[in-house]
Design brief:
Length: 403
């Protein structure tokens, strides 16, 4: 068998249960230890009072070159599964087989001794990963170069910021090139530039490693993963190589308001994105596709000149891009419906859930005053095989306006 075809991670029917009560959990744990000591077999598949399945009957396998995107809402069982994969807790059912050296980033700062310096922690962590001092020496300069913490290398890790801990932890795990790399949401910390650097590094080490990647950023998942698992209440709801489909199923689980509104001097009567009604709906948009926004509004007060700004933001309300109309002279009377058409050519949204916020400004001498803000939602899709990683923050789109 070719070494690249060898299975590095094999998970077979793995389940894990917990008790909701700490006292009850400690009592069950003591009883289980006594049963094991006395050689008594217990039915581990049965739930006792107060117990629940955090992970139930999960199976998958990965070989070199595979990157599994593990997604799901908070409490879906992702962290529990990763702790079993890393050997921190034992499954109640099933079997886990890990082959080769395993590097794991499943908790911010995990594995670091806070009173040791960054330099000392590099050697400690490298040895925990199974590498010799000679191998660590060979990788040492590459680690500190990637982590970009040179001036703090000999400072205690307890003085590091969360971003610096992520830089050092990821750099050690990635530069030592383990056979298996497990990453749990730690890339949510730190600046956008370093996140992109890390994701590109993951792509490089995939040639010789298997990666399990947990993130709430669907853009990161889509651009890195070769397959995807969607967990819900500890069970696999979706498992396939069609990453986009898994991401869309993830998004479909989050219900949201039809729209949010601030201000009452203008009423938007219809709002369409790419000829589909956007109020209460998610509109799919492909990467590089023209974005057509058509909406109608009526003024409830007397207005002569307004300015309209369209803002694009992510699901966390972080602004990503904007489009500005410039001054608009209204025609018609108060309460009369006005139409606006905006075309934004070749949009560059990567995969994710986005909001469109329409803001109206009333003209005042030498300035404009905000008097309405309304937000709608849409979904963007990308071709995960061809798109490059980019930082899209603060783009200014050049829209073609018709009023």
């Amino acid at each position: 068998m070719n070494s690249n075809d060898a299975i590095l991670i094999e998970v077979e029917g793995v389940s894990k249960k917990f008790s909701r009560s700490l006292k009850q959990s400690m009592w069950y744990g003591l009883k289980d230890l006594m049963s094991a000591f006395l050689g008594m077999n217990r039915n581990r598949s049965a739930l006792r009072k107060g117990e629940f399945w955090a992970v139930k009957e999960v199976s998958f396998s990965l070989k070199r070159g595979d990157c599994l995107g593990l997604i799901g809402h908070n409490g879906a069982g992702k962290s529990t599964l990763l702790k079993m994969l890393n050997g921190l807790i034992r499954p109640d059912e099933g079997r886990i087989t890990m082959r080769g050296k395993v590097g794991a980033l499943i908790e911010l700062g995990a594995g670091f001794n806070p009173i040791l310096t960054g330099r000392e922690n590099i050697y400690v962590n490298g040895q925990l990963l199974g590498f010799s001092r000679k191998e660590i020496n060979e990788k040492f300069q590459a680690i500190i170069d990637f982590a970009e913490i040179g001036e703090f290398l000999d400072s205690p890790v307890q003085n590091y910021s969360s971003g610096m801990k992520v830089r050092l932890g990821f750099s050690i795990a990635a530069q030592m090139e383990p056979d298996v790399l497990i990453i749990d949401e730690v890339l949510a910390v730190g600046d956008a530039g370093f996140k992109i650097k890390c994701l590109n590094r993951i792509r490089e080490i995939l040639k010789n490693s298997a990666v399990i990647f947990v993130s709430h950023s669907m853009e990161q998942i889509a651009k890195t993963s070769t397959s995807i698992i969607l967990l819900d209440k500890g069970k696999i709801e979706y498992h396939d190589v069609n990453v986009i489909e898994g991401v869309q199923m993830y998004f479909s689980k989050f219900s949201s308001e039809k729209f949010t509104k601030f201000g009452d001097e203008v009423e938007i009567t219809s709002f369409n994105i790419n000829d589909r009604e956007a109020i209460g709906n998610s509109i799919p948009l492909k990467y590089g596709e023209d974005l057509h926004i058509n909406f109608k509004f009526r003024s409830l007060v007397d207005l002569e000149q307004i300015k309209i700004v369209i803002l694009f933001s992510d699901k966390n309300m972080h602004q990503l891009a904007s489009c500005n109309s410039g001054p608009i002279h209204l025609v018609g009377n108060r309460d009369e419906e006005q139409s606006v058409k905006v075309t934004i050519p070749e949009t560059s949204f990567t995969i994710g859930n986005y909001g469109v916020t329409v803001i109206f400004f009333r003209y005042l001498p030498l300035s404009y005053q905000l008097f309405l803000s309304t937000r709608y939602n849409f979904i963007s899709e990308i071709n995960v095989k061809t798109e490059e990683l980019t930082n899209l923050t603060s783009l200014r789109f050049k829209g073609i306006w018709e009023v």
